[in-house]
Amino acid sequence: MAILDHIQIMTEAMPGKDDIVKIKEISGILRQFAKDYCPVIALSQLTRQNKEQRGKPPVMSDLYGGRWLDMNASVILMSWIPEGEREHEDELILVKNREGEAGYSAPVLFRKALMRFEPRENGRASDDHR
């Protein structure tokens, strides 16, 4: 498996082109790489320029270069911290699933020290995973 953190940094190696064009090319290359060699996880930043969007779950159009990432990705999963939640209590939202349904969300707790998400039950971290 190849993991890239984050896709926008890769655009710096391609001077002279518009960033969105770069993301289009990079996401196409990553898709082909995934088909030929191994699964690829590519992290991306959100734009969230509109202040009215804050406090709402992220959507596909919030991805920087989202149209091209949407076209080339098989799965798009977004992390979101709802307002009023405690620090690091996130939701993982399945925004796109080429092989099935999307629109699901799961409450999770991000454990920074372990660099992993763990299930939350009834809004709290599951004790089974500590």
General description of the model:
The chain is an alpha+beta fold. The protein folds into 2 domains: 1-73, no CATH class; 74-130, no CATH class. The protein contains 3 helices and 7 strands; from the N terminus they run E-H-H-E-H-E-E-E-E-E. The strands form 2 sheets. A 5-stranded antiparallel beta sheet has the order 3-4-5-6-7, with no helix packed on it. The protein has a two-stranded parallel sheet with strand order 1-2. Helix 2 (19-36) runs parallel beside helix 3.
What is the topology?
Layout: E1 2-4, H1 7-10, H2 19-36, E2 40-42, H3 66-72, E3 75-80, E4 89-97, E5 105-111, E6 116-121, E7 124-125
Parallel strand pairs: 1-2
Antiparallel strand pairs: 3-4, 4-5, 5-6, 6-7
Helix pairs in contact: 2-3
